[in-house]
Each structure stands twice: as structure tokens, then as C-alpha cells.
């Protein structure tokens, strides 16, 4: 599988679209200093994923930077492959290309595309990437590709046509099932949302706010049903059961224990996403508090 130079088994997932890029970069440097091995971020109509990766990679020393995910409807497969190979050549082992089919509302309204047959669309996209000739970056190796995989068929495609999977909003039990489908030799990078508070009411408020948009998207609703939740849990913002299942709440030790559950279930790397009262809140205070409990330095 494609090489990734993770220097620890825990990284960060941060939706930083609302932040000026220079401020994102200054926080990325501290994230690296705290011992987190990676910084992943999404692409949903905000900053362009590859440009942000170039800035973060160039402004840090060892931090792995990952798209979590780059929307395949936002650029052609040859353009995505060429950009990824260039970033991989400049920063060997430090760029991870996470790819996803996104969601029907975003694709159809923001990108004026078609969301029919997402599995075959992804399969064709990967095949077109593979066909890009090596001359686009002579001597460079293709960086690791991870797929935003929730269902069994996309997970299987992650094993056969990519270097692994990057599941989002999943339980440790889902991580275990994903590992079984991937096999032992593919990357598994799981995301874990975190509400760092010992006040249960505050934790639930943050979790419900975080789940508000996701609970209205069919991909996540179907994923949660496969994970054992019921239709009654899929109210807007999620039920308490869903909120507690998707968001680790409590002090630093409780959060670290949930991260360990993902690692014990077969994840190679876990990304903590700080969920605060404000979606644009600075994640660093919580990341500083968490780092010792996670064994980082």
C-alpha cells in the first residue's frame, strides 16, 4: 500500500474553511508540535483541497496532510492524479489523497453534476487516475489514496482499487468490520468526533449541533442504520443514543479511551475532531488538553 509517514497513531480532523489560511497554517504548526501526526480536512464548497494541502505541507516539517475528503466531482480524475503526484513528489510520505463521492444535494446543486451510481462513478474515476502516464511527474510515486467508505461495497473497492479507507462518523465496531473487509494490508484511518467536556448536557448539545447537517444526508443515515441504530435515532441532530455513539464525550481520559477502542478494533490511525459550541471555534485549546492523555509529546 502507499506509504504514509505517520509519526504517531493519532491525528486531527478540522473543518477550517472559515479560517484565513495563514491562521490555519499557524495552528497546523502547533498541532505538529503537540505530537499529532496528521491534519485532515474536508472539501464541501469552501477552500480548494489541493491548494490548502500545498500550503500546509510547505509550512510544516513532518505533519501528514490529508484530504478528508477531496470531492471527485470538483475536478477531473487526470487533474486530481496530476496534483496528487506533484504533492507526493514534493513531500514524500506526507500527503494522503482521501477521495469521496460526496452527497447528492452538494453534487447536484453546487457542482451541477449527477449523483447516479456513486460506486461505479468512483470505480471509473480511480481507473482514469491509474491511466495517467508517469511522465506527469517523472520518478515520483503516487501518494496513498483512501476512500470515504461507509458501506461494504465502497469498503471493498477501497481494498481492491485504493490503499485503504477513511470512514467518518462511525463506531469502533464499524472500524472492526471495515478492517475485516479491507484485510490486514490496507490503511484504515478512522475519524472520531470529540466533545471535551465533563458536563453531559453540554456534550449532548455540541453533539446534536455537530450531527445536525449529517442527520439529513442519506449516506450517513444509511450508514447509521447499518451500524445498528434505528430510524427513531435519525431525527434531525440525532437522538441521544446516536449522539453518544458518534461523539466521544467527557474528560481527556474518556476521549483517549474511545480513540484506543478504534485502534484496538484495527484502525492504523485515528483522527480526533473537536466539536465545540461554535463550528468555527479554535480546536487548539482542546487539542492541547487531549495530547497528554493520548500519549503525545
Describe this structure in words.
The protein has 297 residues and is α/β, with parallel strands linked by helices. It has a single domain (10-293), classed as Luciferase-like domain (TIM Barrel). It has twelve helices and ten strands. The chain has helices at 21-33, 49-58, 77-90, 104-110, 118-130, 152-161, 172-182, 200-214, 218-226, 240-246, 252-264, 284-293; strands spanning 10-13, 38-41, 64-67, 70-71, 95-100, 144-147, 164-165, 187-196, 247-250, 269-274. Strands 1, 2, 3, 4, 5, 6, 7, 8, 9 and 10 form a ten-stranded parallel β-sheet that branches. Helix 3 (77-90) links the parallel strand 4 (70-71) and strand 5 (95-100). Helix 5 (118-130) runs parallel beside helix 6 and helix 8 (200-214) packs across helix 10 (240-246). It is globular and about 55 Å long. The mean pLDDT is 94. It holds the Pfam family Bac_luciferase. It is an enzyme of class 1 (oxidoreductase). Its EC number is 1.-.-.-. InterPro entries: F420-G6PD/mer, Lucif-like_OxRdatse_MSMEG_4141, Luciferase-like_dom, Luciferase-like_sf. It comes from Streptomonospora arabica.
Report the order of strands and helices.
EHEHEEHEHHEHEHEHHHEHEH
Radius of gyration: 18 Å
Tell me about the largest β-sheet: 10 strands, parallel
Distance between the termini: 28 Å
CATH class: Alpha Beta
Low-confidence stretches: none
Please estimate the helix content.
40-55%
CATH superfamily: Luciferase-like domain
How many H/I helices? Answer: 12
Class from helix and strand fractions: alpha/beta
> Which of globular, elongated, flat, extended, rod-shaped describes the shape?
globular
Average pLDDT metric: 94
What is the beta-strand fraction? 15-25%
Q: Which architecture name does CATH use?
A: Alpha-Beta Barrel
Number of domains: 1
Amino acid at each position: 500500500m502507499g506509504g504514509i509517514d505517520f509519526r504517531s497513531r493519532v491525528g486531527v480532523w478540522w473543518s477550517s474553511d472559515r479560517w484565513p489560511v495563514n491562521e490555519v497554517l499557524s495552528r497546523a504548526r502547533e498541532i505538529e508540535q503537540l505530537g499529532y501526526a496528521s491534519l485532515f480536512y474536508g472539501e464541501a464548497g469552501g477552500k480548494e483541497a489541493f491548494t490548502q494541502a500545498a500550503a500546509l505541507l510547505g509550512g510544516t516539517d513532518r505533519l501528514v496532510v490529508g484530504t478528508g475528503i477531496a470531492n471527485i466531482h470538483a475536478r477531473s480524475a487526470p487533474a486530481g492524479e496530476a496534483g496528487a503526484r506533484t504533492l507526493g513528489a514534493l513531500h514524500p510520505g506526507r500527503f494522503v489523497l482521501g477521495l469521496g463521492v460526496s452527497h447528492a444535494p452538494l453534487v447536484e446543486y453546487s457542482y451541477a453534476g449527477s449523483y447516479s451510481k456513486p460506486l461505479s462513478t468512483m470505480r471509473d474515476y480511480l481507473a482514469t487516475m491509474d491511466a495517467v502516464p508517469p511522465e506527469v511527474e517523472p520518478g515520483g510515486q503516487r501518494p496513498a489514496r483512501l476512500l470515504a467508505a461507509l458501506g461494504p461495497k465502497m469498503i471493498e473497492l477501497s481494498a481492491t482499487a485504493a490503499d485503504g479507507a477513511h470512514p467518518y462518523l462511525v463506531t469502533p465496531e464499524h472500524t472492526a468490520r471495515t478492517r475485516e473487509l479491507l484485510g490486514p494490508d490496507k490503511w484504515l484511518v478512522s475519524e472520531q468526533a470529540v466533545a471535551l467536556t465533563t458536563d453531559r448536557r453540554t456534550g449532548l448539545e455540541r453533539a446534536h449541533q455537530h450531527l445536525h447537517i449529517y442527520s439529513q444526508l442519506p449516506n450517513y443515515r444509511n450508514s447509521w442504520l447499518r451500524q445498528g441504530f434505528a430510524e427513531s435515532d435519525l431525527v434531525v441532530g440525532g437522538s441521544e443514543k446516536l449522539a453518544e455513539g458518534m461523539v466521544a464525550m467527557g474528560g481527556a481520559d474518556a476521549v483517549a479511551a474511545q480513540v484506543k477502542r478504534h485502534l484496538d478494533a484495527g484502525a492504523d490511525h485515528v483522527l480526533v475532531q473537536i466539536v465545540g459550541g461554535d463550528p468555527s471555534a479554535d480546536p487548539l485549546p482542546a487539542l492541547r488538553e487531549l495530547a497528554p492523555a493520548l500519549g503525545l509529546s
